[in-house]
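Duplicate of #3305? Posting structure anyway:
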């Protein structure tokens, strides 16, 4: 058992998915290494996440940085190929749907190396989203497709994937959440640093927005901010602002929409800080796929400010509601969540903290 598994991380959400897999591979006696593409390249945030999640250092950092989708994908491919040649992996494991996921899967497949895709089969049905195209193509390239929910298997079978290649594993994001929740930074501690000092049981909403489809269109982004401004009249909001989001608020001159409102802007947070903020929030408003899952596991009401989701199980069996992008509808749903009883007890099958060991066992049986 000498050929390793190369686990790809490129963006911060990947870290929470790969961390439990690395632990499971060690426990199963399987050689595995992390390769960081550098798609997200904030050094401070990178170090905080790796430290918080107790992840081993990458054996390579490709340092691709930002660029158009084509440029970024091409750069990852060019820089990853020599790593494959050097380490001769038994398998390249990719997670999620970022450009690094597609690029590394494509390099591996062309070189005859097995590809494992964790979170396979998720579909929003919206091919205008780059992430959707990444998901579809990666799944077609993959030899092992690990799913988080039943709908994913149906999607894969419909797209011609062999049933024997599909393995229901559960959700590795929830493995990390369950392990790290006892170590989460209390929300009161994070909020005190920005002057949001209040009793432990104070109500607040947490906001994250980062997807280009949300924040790159000036009119749509302005509508989202107007909705948040209205919601803040009933519930103070804490907005963890992604750099892209912050830049576009300034670029589109949207600051006046939220000026003087009960919206507290904070920088991007580390995993433990964000986990604490989610766990104590009265309501979360987001366009993030991962946060839809985390809030379901935490039993926290979530409004997803999108017209579609690739994680429908968070709606059918979780705490998530698809709010769309109409400001009046968003405000009405938020008020509904704040005033009516809400079932926080539901959790999907396989979201039990043991998804990574199931994946490790399957790969050990198949590869070694």
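Output from current build:
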């Amino acid at each position: 058992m000498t050929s390793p598994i190369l686990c790809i991380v490129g963006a911060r959400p990947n870290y929470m998915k790969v961390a439990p897999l690395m632990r499971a591979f060690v426990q199963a006696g399987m050689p595995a290494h992390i390769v960081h593409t550098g798609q997200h390249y904030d050094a401070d945030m990178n170090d905080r996440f790796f430290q918080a999640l107790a992840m081993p250092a990458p054996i390579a950092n490709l340092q691709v940085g930002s660029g158009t989708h084509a440029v970024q994908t091409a750069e990852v491919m060019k820089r990853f190929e020599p790593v494959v040649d050097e380490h001769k992996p038994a398998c390249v494991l990719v997670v999620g749907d970022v450009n690094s996921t597609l690029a590394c899967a494509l390099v591996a497949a062309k070189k005859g190396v097995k590809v494992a895709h964790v979170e396979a089969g998720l579909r929003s049905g919206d091919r205008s989203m780059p992430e959707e195209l990444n998901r579809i193509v990666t799944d077609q390239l993959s030899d092992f497709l690990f799913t988080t929910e039943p709908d994913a298997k149906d999607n894969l079978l419909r797209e011609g994937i062999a049933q024997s290649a599909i393995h229901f594993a559960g959700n590795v994001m929830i493995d990390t959440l369950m392990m790290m929740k006892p170590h989460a930074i209390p929300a009161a501690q994070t909020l005190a640093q920005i002057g949001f000092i209040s009793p432990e049981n104070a109500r607040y909403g947490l906001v994250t927005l980062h997807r280009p489809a949300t924040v790159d269109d000036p009119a749509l982004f302005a509508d989202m901010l107007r909705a948040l401004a209205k919601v803040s009249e009933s519930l103070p909001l804490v907005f963890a602002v992604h750099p892209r989001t912050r830049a576009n608020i300034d670029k589109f001159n949207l600051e006046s929409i939220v000026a003087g409102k009960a919206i507290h802007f904070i920088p991007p947070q580390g995993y433990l800080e964000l986990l604490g903020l989610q766990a104590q929030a009265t309501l979360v408003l987001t366009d993030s796929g991962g946060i839809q899952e985390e809030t379901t596991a935490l039993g926290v009401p979530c409004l997803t400010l999108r017209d579609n989701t690739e994680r429908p199980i968070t709606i059918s069996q979780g705490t998530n509601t698809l709010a769309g992008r109409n400001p009046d509808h968003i405000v009405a749903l938020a008020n509904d969540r704040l005033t009516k009883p809400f079932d926080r007890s539901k959790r999907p099958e396989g979201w039990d903290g043991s998804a990574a060991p199931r994946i490790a066992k399957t790969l050990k049986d198949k590869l070694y």
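Confirmed duplicate; merging threads. Residues 240 and 266 are 5 Å apart (CA to CA). The chain has 17 helices and 13 strands.
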